[in-house]
Every structure is written in structure tokens, then in C-alpha cells.
Amino acid sequence: MSKLLKKPVNEQLEDGVSLVHEVTSENSDLKYVSFKMVDLEAGGAYKEKLGKLEVCVVAVTGKITVSDDQEMFEKIGTRDSVFEKKPTDSVYISNDQSFEVKAESKARIALCYSPSDEQLPTKLIKAEDIGVEYRGKGNNKRMVHNILPDDNPAANSLLVVEVFTESGNWSSYPPHKHDRDKLPEESMLEETYYHEQDPGQGFVFQRVYTDDRSLDETMTVENGDMVIVPKGYHPVGVPEGYTSYYLNVMAGPERIWKFHNDPDHEWIIK
After folding, report:
1. What are the helix (H) ranges across the chain?
2. Per residue in 13-33, pLDDT tens?
3. In 107-235, at which residue ranges do the beta strands (DSSP E only) sit?
4. What's the CATH number where 148 sits?
5. Residue 135 buriedness (CB in 10 A; 0-12 / 13-18 / 19+)
6. Smallest Cα–Cα separation from 120: which of 86, 142, 137, 96?
7. Strand, helix or coil at 82?
8. Tally of domains within the chain
9. Which domain holds residue 88?
10. CA dist 58 to 135, 138, 168, Å?
């Protein structure tokens, strides 16, 4: 099994709370990004003390109430399926705080983490405030929900986006990377991909490779899988008949997304 491809663990933590994924520095090569996907039954609650991490709680599906030490955001979340293709609500919570997520209905939540020392205000990121961006042309089209982009100063390190790619199209394409701390040309950002497909029996292909091919893996990614991108180019191909959704989390030394296209394939967009 690839070290980069993560299958769901579906581990019950307590009544009404199941861990779908957990990515940390202990089970991956990532230093800046960590991630959990948690399923909650109605009435179930997940609690955590952050330490020196910030988190973006994404209401992937269902209705939730999120509270920290001082604030509460009730009944947030906008969709029953990601393939409704509308933005959802999220909550940013800074380091050294405790938080709780309670499910008002059956829900799936993404917990997107990165290191943080400077405490920032807790912030509700409303669905209606999320920028929707269309990238690419031809068979390179995709729709992006910019939940926590680099021009939003709400976080210290985190970048979070959702991407929808239609049948027969490519995404994260032409192949690009962001693994060198060499601004202004390129920033160093690790990345995770949480994938879903519609219909659910679908799959996508994702390749992760470096210029010298010291890392070069092509994976068949099924519904609910994750792909870890510690470095390298990372394009995604979507077969005919299926729609792709993925949730990206990025973080690195500086909170700037500056990527470098694979020069062998950059001609595609020129």
C-alpha cells in the first residue's frame, strides 16, 4: 500500500462519534498539516483541547453547533451532500483553546490543523462569504470554494479550499507543485486531499511526483480516501461518468500559495 494513500479507518471513539481519517506527523511525512475527518450521529459531540495548533472546522455535511471557550455558532452547515455543490459554513479556532462540535443532525466534519503560536479571534466563516472561483478551460475546468485562502487573514498558517471537477476533466492541472521555500517564485506548502466521487462507486487517479522522480506514485483513489502530498506535483484525473470533490488543506513556513507548474506540461495553458 502506498504511504501517500490513506483509506478510511472508521474507528468509533465514543457513542455517536466515529473517526474516519486521522493524518498526523506520526503516520505521515507531514510537519505542517494534520487532519481529522469525524462522523457524528445526531446528538453526538466531539471535544478537543488544541495546544499549539489552530483548526478550521468544516461542516462537510449536516448541521452542527460549534463552541469554543467563549463563543457558540448554532446550527451551521448548508448541505446533506457535497455534490449539492454549494459552499458550507466553517469555524476557525486558534491555538490554546478548547472546542466542541455537537451534531444537530447526522454530520461529517473536517478538522484541518496547522501549527500556531499567535492566538487569533475565533471566526465563523459563513457560506455566503466564501468566494467561488472557476479555474481552467476545456478539459481542465474546475470549481473552487475558497474557505480559507491566503488573502483571508483569519488564520496564521492554514489554507483550506474545496474543489469540484466534472466528468472527464483534470484538476490540479497542469501538474504544479509548491515544495520550495523560494518566494516570490514558489512557496513551501504541504497538502492533503480528502476525496469523494459521485456516484459513490467512482474513482479518480492522482499522481504525486518530483522532478528527479525520487517520489513518483500514481494512485487509484476511491470515495472517502485521502492522498498526502508532502512534496512534488500532484495532478488529478476524473474518469468519464463521475464527478470529483476534494477538500484541500495546506500549510507551511509562510501562509502564501505560490505554485510552480511542471515546465514539461506548462505549454497546455499558454
Report:
1. none
2. 999 999 999 999 999 999 999
3. 107-115, 123-125, 131-135, 142-148, 159-165, 170-171, 176-177, 179-182, 186-188, 190-198, 203-209, 216-222, 226-229
4. 2.60.120.10
5. middle
6. 96
7. helix
8. 1
9. 5-269
10. 22, 30, 28
